[in-house]
Design the sequence.
């Protein structure tokens, strides 16, 4: 049986500058949304993806990234659960960046 892998590659535009969180240990995380077009064709409504990156990838996005900047990212899908301010449990899927290229 072939091994199963969790890989995703997206090329799209940043919806805004990334939100950067710096940690006491010197680490950082960048969070942003990436807009992509289905089938590579400009649609009236893009698909939006929640994206986050750690360490050097976060630093690159912090320095390069801005609203409208085009990025190619490769990473993996991450599912997580959180409780919102209203006390409701929510499930979301995000993309964890492993490689990024500014286009």
Sequence:
């Amino acid at each position: 049986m072939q091994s199963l892998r969790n890989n995703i590659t997206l090329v799209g535009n940043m919806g805004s500058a990334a939100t950067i969180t710096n940690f006491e240990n010197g680490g950082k995380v960048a969070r942003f949304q990436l807009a992509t077009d289905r089938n590579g064709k400009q649609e009236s409504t893009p698909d939006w993806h929640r994206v986050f990156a750690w360490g050097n990838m976060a630093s690159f996005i912090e320095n390069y990234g801005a609203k409208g900047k085009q990025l190619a990212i490769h990473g993996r899908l991450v599912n997580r659960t959180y409780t919102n301010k209203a006390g409701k449990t929510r499930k979301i899927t995000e993309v964890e960046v492993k490689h990024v290229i500014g286009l």
